[in-house]
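Write out this protein's structure.
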Amino acid sequence: MEQVKQVNALLRIFLIVLSVYDVGSLGGIRSKSLISYSIPESRQLKKALGYHEDTYLNFTELGSKHGYRTEQHTVVTKDGYILTVFRILSKCRTNARYPVLLMHGLFDTSDVWIVAGKQAGIGYILAENCFDVWVPNHRGNRYSRRHVRLNPNKDVSFWNYSFDEHGNYDLPAAVDYIIAITQRPKVNYIGHSQGTTDFFVMTTLRPEYNYKIQLSILLAPVAWMSNIMSPIPKLLSYMTEQLKIFLDSAGYSELLAQHQLTHFIVEYICQISADAVCSSTLAATTGYKFGTIPGKTLAVAFGHLLSGTSSKSIAHFGQLIQSRKFHRYNEGLRGNLLRYGTTEAPEYNVSLITSPVVIITGRNDWLSSLKDVATLSSRLPNLLENFLVPEPSWSHHNHVWGKDAPGYVFPKIVEYLRWFN
């Protein structure tokens, strides 16, 4: 009940803001400039405030601290986005296995796979098990906020993307790059949350990439969202179009980025009271049960979360909730005709995903409900297993940060990877 009250209060504030700006009068006008409310990154200040060190260390620094050799690579997509891809080298002398690609979710970065530390970070655990680990960052987050000609601080068109572009451009570019560097014909794929959505997009819009995937393991998959239980995205989905018009017209096409004030506030509060504040945030959005993720992990993780995305990405998920379908971004009648040649946005045909798929889900996941996962799994032609974690409280982020993930989830991942290698 208390969570519902908090959600309603947030929505009331948002509606007041919309009324002040009179969104209806904005129509289709799009701002030609972006609003920047950046704050400088100051590690000295964070040290003085008593932040945990892992909160502000980047991917390569975290890897080095825990004794892992890492590399940083640059990949350029077909449409000009410059992506940062990290690599954790195998701990074994010989490596005859296919490389493993880890893809993060919405508002996340590559860091999601290692912030839980040496004993609970799946990126580290895979390296210990002799796998060559590759961790891309999709366009728009802190590591991939670059383009060959567009300036993310000035050009609104930089932010004209959703997960459709992540799957259609970013993932294929990363897969091809990894194959070229490692000289292996295929990669293994592990995605979490939107990282699974990106995979569905790639293997349906570009089905030839099924032949480049040895195995995919999908944690908390997100495709159909008809039965989403999380109240905030569900309620906001009713105003998807108005929200996007307002944000774009006001110059806020980049949302919840790491250099913005919102991130700093959340990061600071979670350092002070991780169990209370961060746990409440996850509980209100994902169904998280208090205590199932260590407080230290939450404090560190929220220093790496909120790493930036586009208003269009949020709007696209809102469309899926309202339409009860899994489809490409709905550009409106005229926009759909121009982009797709049809009056409606085409649906993603997941029956084209012929590469082997393993799904891992949680009973208490408010973003990836069992009913929606059932819809997805019924349409996958090469589904090996739909594994339900036996812990009833298992939620969206327990897959990557949960204190029991090394017992419930990671052995399943390693077992399948070994079997297919």
